[in-house]
Amino acid sequence: MHEIFLDELKKLNTRFMELGVLVNDLIDKGTRSFVDHDKKIAQEMIAEDKEVAKEAIKIEKKALSLMALQQPVATDFRVVISILKATTDLERIGENANSIAVETVRVKGNPRIADVETIISQMTHQVRTMLIQVLTAYVQEDEQTARAMVSGHQEVYADYKKARKLIIDGVEKDPNAAVASASYFVIIRLLERISDHIVNIASWVIYKTSGELFELMESGKK
Amino acid sequence: MHEIFLDELKKLNTRFMELGVLVNDLIDKGTRSFVDHDKKIAQEMIAEDKEVAKEAIKIEKKALSLMALQQPVATDFRVVISILKATTDLERIGENANSIAVETVRVKGNPRIADVETIISQMTHQVRTMLIQVLTAYVQEDEQTARAMVSGHQEVYADYKKARKLIIDGVEKDPNAAVASASYFVIIRLLERISDHIVNIASWVIYKTSGELFELMESGKK
């Protein structure tokens, strides 16, 4: 019986990882569609986003049924709970990536601010690196890497503040950039939110590994 | 044994509701501090936000220990799971309210756009009404009200789009409003996110009541 359970758990872990990798691609696609003004990628993504939501629900259902039918204890219990909770964060990251793509469709041919787009690309690179790190830490039950996500987030937040200032300066110089600025403000916030969800996933890595449950980040510092 | 469990569950439900009411106050305080330029409330809030995070962790810990020690089944299982998941949404709503207060501190004495502040107040009223409705639906296991949250969210989203346009027009007319516009974009997004979390809570009300697990809202439509 326990072997079947462990086998199911292994499959669930694989699906969780696959969802993570899919979502990581979406972050790249979302920003790329925006920076390259590529509406085609943006529209593709809006379709793929539904796939993420569907798969997340399937994983959650599977986790809930394992929990209800097998009543796992100790480590097994924690593994199922961590998937149940961290899947929501992955799904949200997917939604955020999708919202970046939505801005591509919105901004059309309006004047843009080059510096801001550079920092957006940087932030995208940073959150994608963090996501792969946290997924790897999840598999390897690597608490140390999980804890390091906080300083990763602080870098993203520093870039967020820098970007905000660049946008304000850009619009003050050229009020025609106001339409693009709306999208910029949304996108830098979305990237910062993605980073925040990665820290949440890190919290669940620590819970899974050690049984400790706490917030890695005091939200006042976000 | 089961009576003790039910008693614990009742207490947990009460704490969940209390957290909901606290968070609802924070939404009001956050927007009020911003619209009235009241830095004192804003600073108070940033302290209270930590309380929300602490209480959410306590509720989650309690739910996890009930789950692990009592291994509830059927309805009891669903009640514990719904608290475990919906508490995260309440906590996030609290964080979002706090982020609104942070904008109060940021915007300082810069020129503002009156129409935008009116619509922000409207949106705040709407999400607070929705939050009370969903909390009540949670207690009463009222699936119909829970489902109605989707149309509530659609109204909030319509206001979000309207506000976005008003901000862009305002900055185009007066580039000195660029600093305030950064805060406006953040705040309307936060209010829309709060509404989104309320729809998530509604999904957990439905799960708790009927055992059905699905996304109330297709994220492509958000």
UniProtKB/TrEMBL annotation, chains A, B:
Its main location: cytoplasm. Keywords: Cytoplasm, Phosphate transport, Transport. The keyword Transferase does not apply. It is found in: Cytoplasm. The gene is phoU. The keyword Metal-binding does not apply. Belongs to the PhoU family. Homodimer. Plays a role in the regulation of phosphate uptake. It comes from Lactobacillus xylocopicola. The lineage of its organism: Bacteria, Bacillati, Bacillota, Bacilli, Lactobacillales. Residues 17-101, 120-205 form the PhoU domain. It holds the Pfam family PhoU. This is Phosphate-specific transport system accessory protein PhoU.
